[in-house]
Amino acid sequence: GATLGVLGGGQLGRMFAHAAQSMGYFTAVLDADATSPAGLVSHHHVRSGYEDPQGLAELARLCAAVTTEFENVPAAALNQLALSLPVSPAGASVAIAQDRAAEKAHFVKCGVPCAPYAVIETAEQLAAVNDALLPGILKTARMGYDGKGQVRVKTREELATAWAELGQVACVLEKMLPLAHECSVIVARSRQGAIVNLPVQRNLHREGILAVTEVYAGNLPAAQAEQAIAAAQSVAEGLDYVGVLCVEFFVLESGQLVVNEIAPRPHNSGHYSQNALDVSQFELQVRCMANLPLVQPRQHSAAIMLNLLGDLWFTNSPTAKTPAWDQILALPGCHLHLYGKVDAKRGRKMGHLNITAATPEQVRATALQAAAILGIAPF
Ligand code: ATP
Ligand code: MG
Ligand code: MG
What we know:
Blueprint lengths: L2 E5 L3 H12 L3 E5 L13 E3 L6 H10 L2 E4 L6 H8 L8 H7 L2 H11 L6 E4 L2 H5 L8 E5 L9 E4 L2 H10 L5 E5 L3 E11 L5 E3 L3 E6 L2 E7 L6 H17 L4 E10 L4 E7 L9 H4 L4 H9 L12 E8 L15 H5 L4 E5 L10 E9 L2 H15 L5
Parallel strand pairs: 1-2, 1-4, 2-3
Antiparallel strand pairs: 5-8, 6-7, 6-8, 9-10, 9-11, 9-13, 11-12, 12-15, 13-14, 15-17, 16-17
Helix pairs in contact: 1-10, 3-4
One magnesium ion binds next to strand 14.
């Protein structure tokens, strides 16, 4: 068997490795952390940083193709690897996803509406901000995730303070929009340009972190879902993207669909695909890398995913405590996925629970029961 490699050893790399291995591949992970979730389940673990030419050369020697699971892997690392083997997604695509200013410019280029925004890199740009963007959210252009590196601002004074607090790094100020809900679409695109998509996911965020994803008939109005899929496809095509891409959207109270951001990899909102679709987002990642045919995944069950954050390990006790998995697994259609992380911390993604059922009503009933057992607020 050939070896497929992944830059980054987090849970996304671990689930990629599981999918690759079940299709007969060996896996190699590049991550400096000796106990990374993906490193623990892979045949090869190259323990080096993303900027270490020796580590990258070792990965290239081991692998037939390479992907990434870590959004902030330097594009230069992907470009170096691409000199000797197929790399998906390409460094150029990842570079755009890493920079909110470049990302928004790409949305504008594709004709996909996004929130009104301004790029703030200098004091002059800060002073020139249009009042129409307030109240808004100031976001660092680079390195933000799970709502980190973001400050909500109501006035020009708050904006100036927030920019100083963020260290006067390059930022994007976005107008705060009245959201009815959020959704996302995951697409996979091959080297030949074939494109398939997962069903549209409806997402609930809490404190900037994805909490719940619901995917079943009627989770969104059909017209919104079709619009989101078309927009995601044009974003991927505009990048000449190869691999798995997630496009996040806002649905405004007016019903208007607005693109939020992209992630150049499988996404937390696509985890339900492991148990509710006949092809998971991780299998699509493998197929893209190995240049195997892409087929449109089919949904066989209504699905809800609950994220299992480290908070749950502290819910009923001041000291760490494992949630009651025996009660959860006694419910029908509960699929537990834990990432092998040892230390639970608040806000840390420790695992997820996929719940499947024959109907939307049944899946919601079971998911709400599971949430009550775990101490997750109802949704
Ligand atoms: P991720 O972990 O998904 O990469 P992130 O840190 O990149 O998250 P965003 O997706 O930019 O953060 O924002 C996090 C959440 O904050 C959004 O899902 C949404 O709930 C809210 N939010 C962000 N921007 C806006 C906006 N312009 N108007 C209203 N709500 C917003
Ligand atoms: Mg993001
Ligand atoms: Mg986001």
